[in-house]
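call fold(seq) -> tokens
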Amino acid sequence: MAKGEGAESGSAAGLLPTSILQASERPAQVKKEPKKKKQQLSVCNKLCYAVGGAPYQVTGCALGFFLQIYLLDVAQVGPFSASIILFVGRAWDAITDPLVGFCISKSSWTCLGRLMPW
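ret:
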């Protein structure tokens, strides 16, 4: 807050109730603008977003589960190697997803939208 905006310097006017202050000590009433109510998503909208993301999560979990079984039982890869294979994939995604998102958000608009011709 800048000096002189909304704060009384050197007086107790802001600390005491206005009923016990003298007329000369009462702070000037500042007309406040009504606060705008934030638009929040309804429960129905939240559920619709959750249902839309569920197939992606289910396929990701199923793929991870069955890939682990495949690597251990069918391909006869050791448990440490199988976990390293799965971890490297997740770590690669953790690095490349934000990087690609940043590159797309910083690219200029083309006739196809905000895409870079790679």
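The helical segments are 43-74, 79-105.
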